[in-house]
Design brief:
Amidohydro-rel; Metal_Hydrolase; TIM Barrel; 276 residues; 8 strands; alpha/beta; globular; eight-stranded parallel β-sheet; 10 helices; Metallo-dep_Lactonases; Amidohydrolase-related domain-containing protein
Length: 276
């Protein structure tokens, strides 16, 4: 089974997305399932995971409603207020009744405090999340957040986490450190996974598989295929290419790996991690 473990939808008429401003150009509009469907078919993708685009219940409810209407959606990564553990627990009681609800994410890179995710109240919220057996997507935009992953892994050891977009490595600058050292440190914890996603926008215009290769190879060496999963990051991907290009170039970058390793990254890992 081929799985896109990281895609978004947003409807500007239904939900408020304060971060999405006109300067985002081509992605400053509504993107919904009928637009993605032919792109998935063309790539041979069987299932997707919709990931939150706003810290709001409205966004989560909209994603769950979409999931119920499209058989190719296998899961939803929603949102609850981690900094309000009691409210988070009450909402999770309700959300976990929905079979599509698989985990949560918070736009930590939009918080003023770069250390927000390791605050005591947030750690308590993550413990609540782990208690429900749900997963946490870490928006670890380099260089502010990746360093916190080992702290989270030690403070909430039973929480399964996935680092979105390999924490946005400095591909455009063609640098490895200090990103590589921090990613390797995070990979030491078996409950930490990572997404091979969003790398095209980190690479910038005119990118190809060759630009992504060193970063994917490094992640493969430290996480192994069983803890890496492909994601398109559509429609954000449209800022530097399109769905087909992301799929094709990622496949080229994975070409040297064994069939079983490629199968894991392109679907198997996501199925296990999110319990799809």
């Amino acid at each position: 089974m081929k799985v896109d473990s990281h895609q978004h939808f947003w409807n500007l008429d239904k939900v408020s997305y304060p971060w999405l401003v006109p300067s985002y150009g081509p992605i400053y509009r509504t993107f919904e399932a009928p637009e993605l469907e032919p792109l998935l078919k063309a790539a041979g993708i069987d299932k997707t995971v919709i990931v939150q685009a706003m810290n709001s219940y409205e966004d989560t409810d909209y994603m769950l409603e979409t999931a119920a209407n499209y058989e190719w959606v296998a899961g939803v990564v929603g949102w609850v207020p981690l900094n309000l553990p009691d409210e988070a627990a009450a909402k999770l009681e309700a959300y976990t009744l929905n079979p599509y609800f698989k985990g949560i994410r918070h736009l930590i890179h939009e918080e003023q405090d770069p250390d927000w995710v390791v605050r005591d109240d947030v750690i308590e919220g993550l413990k609540v999340l782990a208690g429900f057996g749900l997963t946490f997507d870490v928006v670890a935009v380099f260089p502010n957040h990746l360093k916190h992953v080992p702290t989270l892994a030690e403070k909430v050891p039973n929480l399964k986490m996935v680092i979105d977009h390999l924490a946005k490595p400095p591909i455009q600058a063609k640098q490895m450190e200090p990103w590589a050292g921090q990613l390797a440190r995070a990979a030491e914890y078996p409950q930490v996974y990572a997404k091979v996603s969003g790398l095209n926008t980190a690479a910038g215009e005119g990118w190809s598989a060759d630009d992504l290769q060193p970063y994917i190879d490094f992640a493969m060496k430290h996480f192994g295929a069983e803890r890496l999963m492909f994601g398109s990051d559509w429609p954000v991907a449209n800022l530097a290419g399109d769905y087909a290009q992301v799929w094709e170039e990622t496949n080229k970058a994975l070409a040297a790996f064994s069939p079983s390793e490629r199968e894991a990254v392109l679907g198997g890992t996501a199925v296990k991690f999110y319990n799809l």
